[in-house]
């Protein structure tokens, strides 16, 4: 759960949890992954379910500092991480359209969708799905990152959390990806040059593709485009987290459901 001190139990209301053994394995293996390759951080990203529950994929994302350039790792035992293969834009498009379940075999070859010739190995499909979700749904609270004097995006060490009246507003959340336009949020009445450099969630299409739920401790935003992706922000402090636990399938009918 990248960038946070929030526990996985934060997402218990979504039916998400990890066993004691899973937690212990992940805690140990992620520390080892970070140190073995000198990453600035390596975080548990989530799980992708397969047709064989004993072969579900654990996914981690590791960073050398650039929040736009994660290295993706995968494993099936929560211990022995393997770097996921690189993928092309075409492979990402194909993965988003595939409807078949993951099989639990990284070498399994899926026929390309829509009658296209060729196949897509499951390991590449996994990478592509993770990349798609990072692009479409990985969000953070506004102000958690800022652009420094060199033009680089940095984690904001002084971020104190969202104000109570802002925490349920979609305009208070942004995509952690390069902005689609250089003037992404110039129209904001509270515009801040160093902060408002990312695309706000409130303009995501189709309208209504985020479900916002508030509890006593947190606000949880859930994606209807990628069912299984959830972001939580604390209402009391600067903590926030995200997680994906699902089948790795994009909801191609989201526009008709809203």
Automatic annotation (TrEMBL):
Q: Does the keyword Cytoplasm apply?
A: yes
Broad class of the protein's primary localization = other
In terms of domain of life, where is this protein from?
Eukaryota
Query: TM spans, by residue?
Result: none
Recorded protein name is Radial spoke head protein 9 homolog
Q: Which terms under GO biological process does the entry name?
A: axoneme assembly; cilium movement involved in cell motility; motile cilium assembly
Record keywords: Cell projection, Cilium, Cilium biogenesis/degradation, Cytoplasm, Cytoskeleton, Flagellum
Report if keyword tRNA processing is assigned: no
Localization annotation: Cell projection, Kinocilium; Cytoplasm, Cytoskeleton, Flagellum axoneme
Please give the organism. Answer: Allomyces macrogynus (strain ATCC 38327) (Allomyces javanicus var. macrogynus)
CC per GO annotation: axoneme
UniProt family annotation: Belongs to the flagellar radial spoke RSP9 family.
Fetch the PANTHER family from UniProt: MITOCHONDRIAL RIBOSOMAL PROTEIN S18, RADIAL SPOKE HEAD PROTEIN 9 HOMOLOG
């Amino acid at each position: 759960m990248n960038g946070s001190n929030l526990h996985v139990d934060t997402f218990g209301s979504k039916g998400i949890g990890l066993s004691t053994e899973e937690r212990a394995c992940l805690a140990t293996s992620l520390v080892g992954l970070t140190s073995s390759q000198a990453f600035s951080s390596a975080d548990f990203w989530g799980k992708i379910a397969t047709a064989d529950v004993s072969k579900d994929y654990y996914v981690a994302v590791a960073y050398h500092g650039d929040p736009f350039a994660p290295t993706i790792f995968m494993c099936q035992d929560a211990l022995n991480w393997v770097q996921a293969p690189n993928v092309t834009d075409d492979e990402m498009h194909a993965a988003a359209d595939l409807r078949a379940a993951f099989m639990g075999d990284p070498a399994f070859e899926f026929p390309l969708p829509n009658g296209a010739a060729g196949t897509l190995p499951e390991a590449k499909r996994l990478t592509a799905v993770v990349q798609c979700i990072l692009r479409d749904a990985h969000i953070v609270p506004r102000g958690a990152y800022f652009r420094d004097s060199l033009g680089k995006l940095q984690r904001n060490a002084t971020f104190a959390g969202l104000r109570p009246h802002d925490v349920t507003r979609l305009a208070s959340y942004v995509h952690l990806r390069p902005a689609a336009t250089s003037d992404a949020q110039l129209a904001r009445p509270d515009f801040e040059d160093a902060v408002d450099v990312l695309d706000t969630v409130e303009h995501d299409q189709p309208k209504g593709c985020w479900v916002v739920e508030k509890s006593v401790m947190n606000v949880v935003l859930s994606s209807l485009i990628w069912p299984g992706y959830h972001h939580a922000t604390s209402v009391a402090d600067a903590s926030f987290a995200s997680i994906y636990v699902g089948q790795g399938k994009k909801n191609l009918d989201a526009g008709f459901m809203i």
